[in-house]
C-alpha cells in the first residue's frame, strides 16, 4: 500500500510514541528500526523510521535523516513528519533545526511548523514557552536530563541558533480562532520570510486545529500529538482508503523482562513501584560495571523465573547519575549502561522472555539494535504514547514496548503486562 505520511523520529521511544498515536485511528502503522537496507515493499499507509539521532552530531543526524527521507519518498510518501521529543530535547549544538532545514531544502518547501505539545502527557506551549505540567520546561526535572538537560523553555530561543532562517510564532490567540486563521497567520509569516514557526497548543482541540491547517504542508515537525488527528483527516477526504486497518495482535508467551535505563522522574517512580509490588530486581551501578563488566547481572538473570517479570535497572536519581558521570564521563557512563542492558535483553530472549519492556529512548535504541529487530507492527497503547509492538527477534516473535522516560502511570510495568493479557 502506498505510504501517505512518511515519518522520521530522532529516537526509538519517540518513534513508537508517534506510531502509537497514529495507530489510535485504527490504521496500519509500521515502524522501521533505522533506514531499511531493502527498497520499500509491503509498506503501510503510515511509515515511521526510527533513528537514534537525538544526541549525535548535527552533520550525522542530517545525513541519516536524508537517507530515511529518500526511503520514504520511494515508498510513495509526499508528506512528511519530523518527530522529536515533546520536551524538545536537543544538545547545545542542536539537531532539531538543522534536520528540519535539510528536509525543507530537499522537499523545496519554504516553511514548516514546530509543535512539541502533548497535552495528554502534560506538555503544552503558550506564547512559545514549553511547559511540563505546571512547570516551565527549564524548571521541570528535564533540567537534570543525563544527556540533554533543558535549561531554557522558550522554543524560539532554543530554535534560533539551530537554524539559518527566521523563526516566528503563531500563538494560542490565533490557534483559538481556528484553522483558517492559523493558515492566514502562516501565510503572513511566510511573506515576511519566516521559515520556522513555533505554534502554541495547550489542549487536544488546538492540535486538531493545527493538523487541519497544516495537513497539506510537505513537512510538519513536532511531538507525536500534533500528528494524531492526521489519519482521520486523510480518511475523511479519501486520501487514505478505509481498508488500511491494523492487523490483530498475535498471542505472546508469558516470559517477561523489564529493562530500565531511563533516569527520568517518572521512571524512578515506576521502578520503585515495581520493586514495592515484589518483583525481583537488580540495580546496575555504572561504576561497578566499569570495573567488573556484566557477568554478575547476567548470572543473576540466568537464575530468574521470567514469569515473575524481573526488572534490571540503572535508573537513579540526579545526584547518583552526576556522580557516575563525573568519574566515567557522560557518554561513557551512558554507553556502559546501554551495552549492559542490551546484553541482558538478548540473554533474556534466549532464556525464553517473549515480552520485553524497555524504559528510556537511548536505552531502547541500544536494546532494539542488539535484539536485531528491524520492523515493528504497532498494537494497542498501554499509556498515552506507549504502545505494545510486535516483531521478530532472533527468529522468535516477541512483544516489545519502548517507554519514553516520562511517560506512563506509576504502575506502568504492571499495566503493560495486563494490557497484553487482555489483547
Ligand atoms: N545510573 C546512571 N548513571 C549514568 N548514566 C545513566 C545511569 N542510568 C542510565 N544512564 C544513561 O542515561 C541515559 C538515559 O537516557 P534514555 O534516553 O535511555 O532515557 P530517558 O531520557 O529518560 O528517555 P526518553 O529519551 O525516552 O525521555 C542513557 O544513556 C543511560 O544509559
Ligand atoms: O515526545 C516524547 O516525549 C517522546 O516520544 C520522546 O521522544 C521520548 O524520547
From TrEMBL:
<keyword id="KW-0808">Transferase</keyword>
<keyword id="KW-0067">ATP-binding</keyword>
<keyword id="KW-0119">Carbohydrate metabolism</keyword>
<dbReference type="InterPro" id="IPR050007">
    <property type="entry name" value="OtnK"/>
</dbReference>
<dbReference type="InterPro" id="IPR031475">
    <property type="entry name" value="NBD_C"/>
</dbReference>
<dbReference type="GO" id="GO:0016301">
    <property type="term" value="F:kinase activity"/>
</dbReference>
<dbReference type="InterPro" id="IPR010737">
    <property type="entry name" value="4-carb_acid_sugar_kinase_N"/>
</dbReference>
<dbReference type="Pfam" id="PF07005">
    <property type="entry name" value="SBD_N"/>
</dbReference>
<keyword id="KW-0418">Kinase</keyword>
<dbReference type="InterPro" id="IPR037051">
    <property type="entry name" value="4-carb_acid_sugar_kinase_N_sf"/>
</dbReference>
<dbReference type="Pfam" id="PF17042">
    <property type="entry name" value="NBD_C"/>
</dbReference>
<protein>
    <recommendedName>
        <fullName>3-oxo-tetronate kinase</fullName>
        <ecNumber>2.7.1.217</ecNumber>
    </recommendedName>
</protein>
<feature type="domain" description="Four-carbon acid sugar kinase nucleotide binding">
    <location>
        <begin position="258"/>
        <end position="413"/>
    </location>
</feature>
<feature type="domain" description="Four-carbon acid sugar kinase N-terminal">
    <location>
        <begin position="5"/>
        <end position="229"/>
    </location>
</feature>
<comment type="similarity">
    <text>Belongs to the four-carbon acid sugar kinase family.</text>
</comment>
<comment type="function">
    <text>Catalyzes the ATP-dependent phosphorylation of 3-oxo-tetronate to 3-oxo-tetronate 4-phosphate.</text>
</comment>
<dbReference type="InterPro" id="IPR042213">
    <property type="entry name" value="NBD_C_sf"/>
</dbReference>
<keyword id="KW-0547">Nucleotide-binding</keyword>
<dbReference type="GO" id="GO:0005524">
    <property type="term" value="F:ATP binding"/>
</dbReference>
Amino acid at each position: 500500500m502506498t505510504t501517505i505520511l512518511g515519518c522520521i523520529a530522532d529516537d526509538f521511544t519517540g518513534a513508537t510514541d508517534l506510531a502509537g498515536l497514529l495507530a489510535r485511528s485504527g490504521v496500519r502503522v509500521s515502524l522501521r528500526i533505522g533506514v531499511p537496507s531493502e527498497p520499500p515493499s509491503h509498506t503501510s499507509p503510515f511509515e515511521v523510521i526510527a533513528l537514534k539521532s537525538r544526541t549525535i552530531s548535527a552533520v550525522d543526524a542530517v545525513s541519516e535523516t536524508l537517507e530515511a527521507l529518500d526511503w520514504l519518498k520511494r515508498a510513495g510518501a509526499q508528506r512528511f513528519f519530523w518527530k522529536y521529543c515533546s520536551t524538545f530535547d536537543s544538545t547545545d549544538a542542536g539537531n532539531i533545526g538543522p534536520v528540519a532545514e535539510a528536509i525543507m531544502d530537499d522537499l523545496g518547501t519554504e516553511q514548516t511548523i514546530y509543535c512539541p505539545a502533548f497535552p495528554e502527557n502534560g506538555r503544552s506551549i503558550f506564547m512559545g514557552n514549553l511547559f511540563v505540567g505546571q512547570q516551565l520546561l527549564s524548571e521541570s526535572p528535564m533540567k537534570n536530563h543525563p544527556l540533554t538537560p533543558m535549561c531554557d523553555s522558550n522554543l524560539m530561543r532554543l530554535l534560533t541558533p539551530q537554524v539559518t532562517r527566521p523563526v516566528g510564532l503563531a500563538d494560542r490567540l490565533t490557534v483559538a480562532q481556528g484553522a483558517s486563521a492559523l493558515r492566514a497567520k502562516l501565510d503572513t509569516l511566510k511573506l515576511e520570510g519566516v521559515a520556522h514557526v513555533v505554534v502554541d497548543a495547550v489542549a487536544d482541540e488546538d492540535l486538531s486545529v493545527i493538523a487541519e491547517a497544516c495537513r497539506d504542508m510537505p513537512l510538519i515537525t513536532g511531538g507525536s500529538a500534533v500528528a494524531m488527528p492526521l489519519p482521520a483527516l486523510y480518511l475523511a477526504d479519501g486520501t487514505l482508503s478505509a481498508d488500511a486497518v491494523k492487523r490483530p495482535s498475535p498471542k505472546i508467551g508469558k516470559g517477561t523482562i523489564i529493562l530500565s535505563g531511563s533516569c527520568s522522574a517518572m521512571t524512578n517512580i515506576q521502578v520503585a513501584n515495581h520493586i514495592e509490588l515484589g518483583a525481583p530486581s537488580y540495580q546496575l551501578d555504572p561504576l561497578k560495571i566499569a570495573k567488573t563488566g556484566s557477568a554478575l547481572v547476567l548470572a543473576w538473570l540466568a537464575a530468574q523465573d521470567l514469569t515473575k517479570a524481573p526488572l534490571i535497572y540503572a535508573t537513579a536519581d540526579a545526584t547518583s547519575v552526576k556522580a557516575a558521570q563525573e568519574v566515567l564521563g557522560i557518554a561513557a557512563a551512558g554507553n556502559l549502561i546501554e551495552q549492559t542492558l542490551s546484553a541482558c535483553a538478548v540473554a533474556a530472549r534466549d532464556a525464553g522472555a517473549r515480552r520485553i519492556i524497555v524504559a528510556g529512548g537511548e536505552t531502547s535504541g541500544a536494546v532494539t539494535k542488539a535484539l536485531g529487530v528491524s520492523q515493528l507492527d504497532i498494537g494497542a497503547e498501554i499509556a498515552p504514547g506507549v504502545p505494545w509492538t510486535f516483531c521478530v527477534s532472533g527468529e522468535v516473535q516477541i512483544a516489545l514496548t519502548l517507554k519514553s522516560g516520562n511517560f506512563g502511570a506509576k504502575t506502568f510495568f504492571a499495566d503493560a503486562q495486563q494490557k497484553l493479557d487482555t489483547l
